[in-house]
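Worked problem 6 (solution included).
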Amino acid sequence: MDQPFGIHWFRRDLRVAGNRGLSENWKRNKGRVVGLFCFDKKFLGREDFSVHRFQFFMETLKSLQSELLEMGSDLLFMDVGPEVAFQKILNDLPNPPTLLSWGQDYEPYARQRDKKMQDFFKSKSIATFVARDHLLIEPHELGKKDKTDESYQVYSPFARRWLDIFQDDSVQKRVQQEEAGIEYLKSRLNKKNTKRFNLTWKELLPNCPDAIKVLQSYLSENGKRVKIAIPKAGSLQAFQELQSFTERLEHYQSKRDIPSLPGTSGFSIFLKNGSLTVPQIIYYLKLNPYKKKSSSRDSFFSELIWREFYYHILYHHPQVEKQSFLSQYESLQWENNRTWFEAWKNGQTGFPIVDAGMRQLQSTGWMHNRVRMIVASFLTKDLLIDWRWGEKFFMEMLLDGDLAPNNGGWQWAASTGCDPQPYFRIFNPWSQSCKFDPKGEYIKRYVPELADLQPKELHEPILNNKSYPKPIVDHKMQRLKALEIYKAARES
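Solution. The predicted structure is:
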């Protein structure tokens, strides 16, 4: 028991492959590392808590624990926040760990929590290692060229600067470091022996509680509230999705905006909990816009950069979690009609493309990205409802609900965010459905009461269908209203 050992604190880095914090701990302690996860009530009590996302998260934890046990390590679940959990563990252990590691998090609450825990570990004279994790380039590494202490607020110059830094040897080395993790995942797929650790919690704490009971209790209780099919979870499943996308990548540009096709990557649910990361994706798909020009590959790469952009915005401007990035739009006179909001939530607006998207969300926990933009524009610009209402509902329903990209996407659609869609550009839901679902395949999949209509009929107001509602608003009239309230806010 007097041999050195480490503890890795898992949060949103739920994988072994390419987990830099875990790997560093493993090296320093010669494989004597165990994992810890805390069910933090402050997170579970958030207003935008999602039953379905939490279930998927726990399935990922279950997969991670099985993987660690297979490798000769272990994962302990504690039904308390980290402050209480670590205090108890340190009191129970005969010797303190030589290293505590975890992956960096950039959300406002997480940053406050981690600062407290850093101070706590320092007071106990315990060494810590905080690793860059789900971002390739961290917010403190990317400032304006001429004013490095200032952050970018517009995507295009941010992306140019990001791509410049991407070419640096140090960042290319980060990408290449993903090779070991990818090879490890391949060996797991081939069911080769992957035992690389040599310590369990039972060895450290002979009277250690049965950790799996904590997880099983949450899975069982939360599972009673689940209303959708929960997808397969875990880093191995994420890797298989990455392999599958390789075949679709070359057609990404032409298919990504067509909601009836499987044209997007589907990575977002894995990126949210860290069973897959942006650096892993870049390495495996060999993405490099300076070496091989491809509209599809570059287009997909730009989506990864957008994700990092929104994290940088949240890091530098944490107030966007609750407020409009553009302060002049805090005075927008939203109408906030609750009847209309309920119709929007339930896919009963009388606008087929909007209703299809909302029903897809309700029935699957996911929505196609092009349709996310359409329904967000419709809520804010047609129904004149505060973007925060929609953002919160998305977080409650989405399996991939992630604060930074979700907030960034909603503020973009509402024209209140950084580098937003201009307030006078308002999606026409009829022309959007005609352009991106011309045959009505997506609409008919989720709005079956319209299955007998001709495609052309789906892209104009439906007035005589007894099983489907008439449009709840007139788009042309609401567009003019929206222009008025945005102009009034800008001039106030």
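Discussion: Residues 76 and 285 are 34 Å apart (CA to CA).
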